[in-house]
Amino acid sequence: MSAIRWNRRSVLASMAVLSVGAGLGGRTAIARAAATTRYTMTAFTNSSDTDLYVYESEDAAHFTLLRAGAYRPAAGLVRDPSLLRHSDEAYYIAYTTAGDGHTIGFARSTDRLTWTHLSDYPVPVPGAEAAWAPTWFDLIPGYVGVLVSISQGYGFRPYLIVTADPARPVWSSPIPLAGIGPQRPGHLGYIDTAVVARDGSYYAFTKNESSKYIELAVATTPLGPYRFIGTGDWAGWGTPREGHCVIELPDGGHRIYFDAYTEKRYFYSDSHDGFRTWTAPVELPGLSGTVRHVTVLPEPAGTQ
């Protein structure tokens, strides 16, 4: 199979058929319509960055353990595991394999509990010295993408790679998100970028590696150019913070989970006004101090 030929123009063409208001993972309309919702969390922990932990919740706050050590790669780490449910009904994780190098890992499961390694993929960015926090990006019709934070030795910026089939991926060439990267000489750039679509715009939640705040940028296309609308402690979450995940709640609001990693605490915070204001952070009950860099996936209760 040949590599996918992908550029900004082809992304814009695909976006013409995207429904306005789609959310992260493309499943928020289903979640909202369901009477109840099941939330699956994947994480690594303070005690192990080589084992995948899987949790479940009915209210997106109180999670119970489904399986500890659900997956351990033969080599390397399983940090920052990002969770996707694809149209083939299987689950996929993308994860950081090492603190340095330019390789990210992938695994697949049909039940969330037993995982099979798919591949370790060297992201082809020239001069890449680190590839961190690959995050699923399911906002382009007919394709699945991964946003990955890449450093070429002078600060991080997010790149997007896309494929038609995560089970047998042929990845496109990486495309940087315009407007998110080192802002000036000596700036460390941005990591952990996650994009949410809302009301025809694309909102990028991304950690400023110099200030250690989670900041917010917006664009009219998924590749940008992005402009920052929330910088510094704009949301009242404090610093240093990272490892964030944003989901839509059944009432149409949004919840962000984030890692206060130097304190070994994990928090969540909600917004119900289009990301303008957020509730005071609340520690994740029972798991604050244990989990690191979580992903939470909403699905209708009773999903097999």
Structure overview:
The chain is mainly beta and 304 residues long. It has helices at residues 8-15, 28-33; strands at 37-45, 48-57, 63-71, 79-85, 91-96, 103-109, 116-122, 130-137, 144-151, 156-163, 175-176, 190-198, 201-208, 214-219, 227-230, 242-248, 254-260, 265-271, 282-283, 291-300. Strands 3-2-1-20 form a four-stranded antiparallel β-sheet. β9 (144-151) and β10 form a beta hairpin. 45% of the residues are buried. Mean pLDDT is 90; it is low at 15-35.
The separation of the N and C termini measures: 32 Å
The helix content, as a percent range, equals under 10%
Helix and strand sequence: HHEEEEEEEEEEEEEEEEEEEE
Radius of gyration, in Å, reads 18 Å
Spatial arrangement of strands, main beta sheet: 3-2-1-20
Query: Which runs of at least 5 residues are low in confidence (pLDDT < 50)?
Result: 15-35
Mean pLDDT: 90
Category from helices, strands and their pairing? mainly beta
Largest sheet descriptor: 4 strands, antiparallel
Beta content comes to: over 45%
Shape category: globular
**DSSP, total strands:** 20
What is the secondary structure topology, with strand pairs?
Elements: H1 8-15, H2 28-33, E1 37-45, E2 48-57, E3 63-71, E4 79-85, E5 91-96, E6 103-109, E7 116-122, E8 130-137, E9 144-151, E10 156-163, E11 175-176, E12 190-198, E13 201-208, E14 214-219, E15 227-230, E16 242-248, E17 254-260, E18 265-271, E19 282-283, E20 291-300
Antiparallel strand pairs: 1-2, 1-20, 2-3, 4-5, 5-6, 6-7, 8-9, 9-10, 10-11, 12-13, 13-14, 14-15, 16-17, 17-18, 18-19
